[in-house]
Amino acid sequence: MAFMEQSLSETGVAACASAHVSVMGATKVFDMPDGAPPVNALGPVTFDLRRGEFFSVVGPSGCGKSTLLDLVAGLSSPTEGHIHFEGAEVRGQVPEGVAVVFQEDASFPWLNVFDNAAFGARRNGLPENEIRARVDHALAFMGLAGFARSYPAQLSGGMRQRVCIARAMVLRPRLMLLDEPFGALDQQTRLLMGEEMLKLWRETGSTVMLITHSIDEAVLLSDRIGTMSARPGTFIDIVETGWSRERGSETAMDPRYGALQSQIWGMLRNESLKALGLRV
Amino acid sequence: MNPGIMRQGSGRDRWLDVLLLVAGMLLLWQGASWALGIEVLPGPWRTLLQLQREIADPDFGKHLAETSKAFFTALLIAVLAGTSLGLILGVRRLAGDVMELILIALYSIPKISLYPIILLMFGLGLSAKIAFGVIHGIIPIVIFTMTAVRNIRPVYLRSIRTHRLTPWQGAVHVLIPATVPEIVAGLRIGFSLTLLGTLLGEMFASQRGIGHLLMLAIDRNNPPTIMALALMLFMFATVVSIGLLQWDRHLRRGTQP
Amino acid sequence: MNEAALTVPAPRRQSVALAMRRHRVVLLRCLFIIVSIAVLELASRLAWIDPVSFIPPSEMALSAWKLLLNGAYRDDMIMTLSSAAMAIVLATTTGFLFGLLLYKLPRLRRVLDPLLLSYYAVPIFVLYPMLIVLFGLNRWPLIMLGFLFAVVAMAVNTLNGLERIPTVLLRTARMLRMGRVQEVWLIKLPASLPFVFTGIKLSIVYSFIAVIGGEFLLSGTGFGYQIAFAYNNFDNQTMYGLMLLLLIFVGTINLILHAAEQRLYQRRVLREPS
After folding, report:
1. Which pLDDT band, with edges at 50, 70 and 90, does C99 fall under?
2. A34 at the B interface (CB within 8 A)?
3. What string of H, E and C letters represents the secondary structure of B150-188?
4. What is the DSSP secondary structure assignment for residue A233, as one 8-state letter?
């Protein structure tokens, strides 16, 4: 697979510099208490994120997709290998310019929607009128303009997740990491949220890495899709979709959509069986 | 999810923890005894010896019997009446809602201050002691049982109907297993409080019983006896409490407490 | 984006029905209390129960009112209140720090777990003589009694609150690159506040129980003692009057605390989104 060879070659460092995020030979091993054998959660994984692309990672449950996101975000350190963001190494510290939207609802129940969205920007010491402008824009963008004074306890799950996305948006990150953010939502809401993510991506121009278990979501939204094997997760392949930047739900009509889905499922079916503990 | 977050130690670890705890407490006790003087606070060994002496006393058996009678009767009443009342209040939503606040208010009253009423109504004697124990222990049992029944997940009730179980089958195979863990948690607290209530009752107004012996020792400022009796009570309460806790854990079997 | 497409579903009718239901509950509750008092009144006046042992509630109220106006027991009330207040302050601060310590040191927590669970199994009053020797024949043994009774409840609830902070909020703090102090002040404390408040509530309740109980059994001054004194002197009027005052006072404090606690939990502890 050409992409792998290129990254591991002598031009590896140069590849780092041009790639927005560069992951080289990253693995993650978890130590278990009481002498149980350590868990090989991920790896080795090697790939690059190109600046401004929409990249999805699809794989069966427990394959280590979220672990990978943690490594890229700097929320945890790789046991082996290296991760670089904009040329600088990422290890255990979240670099500036990165925002994460988690799977679980991370809205703070004690703050209203406006303060929730403004939270990250306020920590960074931006002037208040700048913050207000950004938050108003983000809330309007996410369809929450009328709920600025409401509290998360009064909102549905989908709305709370939109608050979290608004909070990430206000930070104007250069890299946005999404860990199955729509996992708790129903399919129809997910489709609408997917459209919102595309709008967001086009508007901000940030690089987006989406972790998802939904193949059709990945195929619809991404420039490239990394398919991950069962634990310990490694990339089976990285597939280019070739969609234009102006993709949307009508992309599902494109004949390549179905072919891509089959191709990816073909790669993942066995891995899913393995993840379920069934014989392949 | 980081698997390293798991907290439960292995069996061996747990025994080590218990050993550490017991050793720590004994050391602390001995240290305090030295610091304050053995006349004020006898150390563990002296207390153990004193306890032996107390038990050997011919009258001790009578006192123990008295307290046991009162305590176990009170416990029986508190458990039976408490769970029944709790079940009713749990099933009848409206009654439960109405009574909840009243129960919470009753729970927080210093019940000792109600003792005179009990004495005036029951007179000095066994029934007053039992009443003391009951008023202490019954309220948490009612509250916990009521909460347990109210929190039965609606999906269980729907499962009973989809499997077409009779009310009896539903209760036996679904409702009771679903609520028992919570009820047992209430029983644990009810046990401790009933013991407390019975002892306090004996301390305040009785001529017999462990509580009475305790009160005598306090009045006469007799630390060795106080500590010996306190140790005995502590060990009894702890053993039962831990036993109930193990049962509680066994019932939950992996579900979140 | 079309807001209406994804708004909260609760129809207006549902919330009106809920409010009506709540009013019904409150009404029935008041009815229950009034009927109970009425029954007791009748039972006493008609001698179904011995009217000397149990005076009618109306007379209790009268006695209580006279006692309040009289002011003879004012010093005792102040003594009890101040002792309890001291115990509460000590218990909440120490308990909070202790709970924090247990949170930071999971090994210690595991070791102390059985002790914490059976702490309330033994009457704490047995330590009273030791406390007198330590602190002298004044109110400090009582305050320490209140403290010892309340501190574990505070610690356990603080620990519970800290443990229940959703992990995702802590990860958010790391994602936003917050410092330790910021994380504690802006996320950990607000998130655990409802449970810490429960601890404070229990500290208040338990301190009162221990102080008044201690005064009742073992002391020479204070409100609890006065109740016991009245009982021992066959002064039922005074005794019941004092008891009623105690009941009303403790009941009111508890209801206020309970209401505040409910509001905190409603606003700040999110259920799973349905």
Report:
1. very high
2. yes
3. HCCCHHHHHHHHHCCCCHHHHHHHHHHHHHHHHHHHHHH
4. B
B6 touches chain A (CB under 8 A): yes
pTM across the whole model: 0.80
As a CATH number, domain C57-268 is: 1.10.3720.10
In this structure, the strands spanning A21-30 and A39-49 are antiparallel
Residue A199 Cα, gap to closest chain C Cα (Å): 10
Number of helices (H), then strands (E), in chain C: 11, 0
- Angle of the A157-170 helix axis to the A187-204 helix axis, nearest 10: 10
| Positive or negative: CA dihedral B68, B69, B73, B78 | negative
Stretch B226-245: mean pLDDT: 85
User: Is B52 an 8 Å CB contact of chain C?
Assistant: no
- Going from N- to C-terminal start, the domains of chain C cover 12-54, 57-268
Residues of B whose CB is below 8 A from C250: 108-110
Bridge partners of A233, per DSSP, are A42
CB-count burial class (<10 Å; 0-12, 13-18, 19+) for B58: exposed
User: What distance lies between CA B213 and its chain's CA centroid?
Assistant: 21
Question: Counting beta carbons within 10 angstroms of the beta carbon of residue C238, is it exposed (0 to 12), middle (13 to 18) or buried (19 or more)?
Answer: buried
The CA distance from A39 to the nearest CA of chain B, in Å, is 8
Q: What is the mean pLDDT of residues B162-177?
A: 78
Q: Which one-letter DSSP state was computed for residue C269?
A: S
Contact status of B24 with chain C (Cβ, < 8 Å): yes
Q: How far apart are CA C270 and CA C188, in angstroms?
A: 15
Beta bridge partners of A238: A226
CATH number at residue B244: 1.10.3720.10
Lookup result for tokens 């240290």: B31
Size of interface B-C (CB pairs under 8 A): 150
Give the pLDDT confidence of C218-274 residue by residue, as tens digits.
777 888 899 889 888 888 889 999 989 998 998 899 889 999 998 888 877 765 443
| Secondary-structure class of domain A2-97+173-240 per CATH | alpha beta
Residues of B in contact with A33 (CB under 8 A): 4, 6, 9
Q: Could you tell me which of A152, A150, A121 has the C-alpha nearest to residue A134?
A: A121
B9: in domain:
no
- pLDDT bin (cut points 50, 70, 90) of residue B255 is low
The torsion angles phi and psi of A43, rounded to 5 degrees, stand at: 105, 175
Tell whether A61 is within 8 A of chain B (Cβ).
no
